[in-house]
Amino acid sequence: MNAPDRYERFVVPEGTKKxxxxxxxxxxxxATFTIEREDHTIGNxxxxxxSYDIRPLSNFVSFCLFLLD
Length: 69
Prior knowledge:
The chain is an alpha+beta fold. It has helices spanning 6-10, 40-50, and strands at residues 19-23, 31-35.
C-alpha cells in the first residue's frame, strides 16, 4: 500500500523541534508558531479558546501547551 506509516504522522524526527516560533518583524509582540506532527485537534482547541470571549477587555492571549510522550 502507498500510505505513509501512522508512526510518521505523530513522532517528530530527531533534531526537529516539536514547537518552534518566529518573531514577526512588522508587528510588535507577534510571532508565528509552528507545531509539528499534530492533527486538527490542537487547532480546534486554540480556536475555541480564542473565541471564548467575543469582547475581551485585555489585549493579550495566554495559553499553556503541554506536550506528553
